[in-house]
Amino acid sequence: MQAANRVVMNTGLLYGKMLVTIFISLYSTRLVLSALGARDFGIFNLIAGVIAMLSFLNMAMTLSTQRYMSVHLGGGDMERLKKIFNASILLHLLLGLGLVIVFEVAGYFLLGHVLNIPPERLTAARIIYHFMVVSAFFTIISVPYDATINARENMLLVALTGIAEALLKLGVALTLQNAGTDRLVLFAGLTAATAVGLLLFKRIYCSLKYPESRIRIGKYKDAALLKEMLFYGGWNMFGAVSVVTRNQGLAMILNVFFGTIVNAAYGIANQVNAQLSFFSVTLMQALNPQIMKSEGQGNRERMLKLAMIASKFSFSLLAFFSIPLILETPFVLGLWLKDVPEYTIVFCRLILLSTMVNQLSVGIQVGVQSVGKIRKYQLSVSALLMLNLPVAYLLLQMGMPAWSVLAAALGIEIITCAYRIGAAEKLIGLPVKSFLSGVVMRAVISVLLAFCIALLPYRAMDEGWTRLIVTCAASTLGLICTLNWVGLSAYETGKIRDVMTKVLTRIHPRLAVIKKAV
Question: Which DSSP letter does residue 516 get?
Fold first, then answer.
């Protein structure tokens, strides 16, 4: 299958999965919040967040292993693939055991002396913590299998397991509604069991399907490769840990100053952000292997072109859904949740804006990963992200409101994005002027114009379903027009038309003829 066709098919599969899972996940969150209440929901997000934010760590570690596998898949070296997989298995097993020890020791101090948890719920919080540590261990040791699936571009499996996970979580949420036991503990236990079960399934599938994913550590041991992967993966994980520490550190600081109710608002805002980010994350999941394989084949020009296109498209795709939601946050949250915790609205808006800024450089982040020269890069990016914690503490110590923490995070994200662009020029030869003029300026101007168009019905109409529908329509049409007129180059417009033609051809050959005629 040609690379372009593979990207089209994989993107379609992932978006099909996303459309199914996003609504199930949002409805499940509403059921869980209703069953647990704001206080217990806040406790779960605080405690589970210490471990659950490992999703960022998991993605980064998966990308590290995927980088090696994709590069060598591009070169067609199967023996090297087997060595890479087995070295990765050994590294992640040791890492998983190490983190279990660290988390258990840290948990003693966090739960007893740091976190602001009501005394009557402290026992439940400890049980939740242990459940999440077990889940984290299985998540980490399954990273090599996730990397294999992504490098092999088996997005059908990704789609099916994603839908299965969403349905299982819905089953958990429904179970809570009439549970007679402690619902918070039950929720944590069932959530951990769901994660472990799905991860075990993926491990079994890969072992049967892909020959390189069979464990033969003794046969395929390679000390030099192990050292190289440890160095690269270590720095990559260091960068991911800084993201985890930034996100969960802000949750802890908010907890110390405001208690668990604010953690409920922070958790809901992050869930909204995660659901909307699926659109851009899905695009990157389909493009990442192609960016890395291009570098593996020695085609730096194609790698840079794909990285720049990925940044623009990812930012624009997130904007399609973020613009109307940022405007209509109070109404949408009121429809979704029975009771909206304080600060949730402003938290949602600020976190979405921060994520949009991050998406402007998401493609070149993958480009840097594919080249592998990341030590200084990760140190600098991590230092900027960690700056959030002292800034947040000082702001709240000065008596500033809770939302000021996320406003500061938005400012730091802008600075971090600027650094990434400058670093990419040195590391991978990114043409900065072309990137700023062809990607950043075009995308930002298009989104700002679309926002102004969507603002017209928002200001002219009263809150309600009618205004929500009109605002969404105005935002969508406005962004399509502004991207066509300002945002996209002639090359990108041509590529989109080619992709649409291929998609329509797969549906029915006559549709492609109609598209070409238009």
Answer: H
Q: Provide the pLDDT for residue 411.
A: 95
Residue listed under structure tokens 């549906």: 507
Question: Which amino acid is it at 326?
Answer: I
Q: Where are the alpha helices (DSSP H) in 297-343?
A: 300-327, 329-336
For the chain, the domains span 3-430
Report DSSP state, residue 258. Answer: H
Q: DSSP states of 414-480 as a string?
A: HHHHHHHHHHHHHHH---HHHHIIIIIIHHHHHHHHHHHHHHHHHHHS-SSHHHHHHHHHHHHHHHH
Residue range 285-312, pLDDT digits in tens: 667 777 877 777 778 888 898 889 888 8
Contact 269, 326 (CB under 8 A): no
Q: Nearest-CA neighbor of 421 among 410, 412, 433, 408?
A: 433
Q: How many helices (H) and strands (E) does the chain have?
A: 21, 0
Q: How far apart are CA 181 and CA 48, in angstroms?
A: 19
- The candidate with the shortest Cα–Cα distance to 146, out of 65, 47, 227, is 65
For the entire predicted model, the pTM comes to 0.70
Those residues whose C-beta lies under 8 Å from the C-beta of residue 337, and which sit 6 or more positions away, are 30, 33, 268
Tell me the mean pLDDT in the region 385-407.
93
Round to whole Å and give the CA distance between 117 and 122.
6
**pLDDT by residue (tens digit) across 52-75?**
555 555 656 666 676 777 666 655
What does each C-alpha distance from 68 to 82, 366, 518 come to in angstroms? Answer: 11, 13, 43
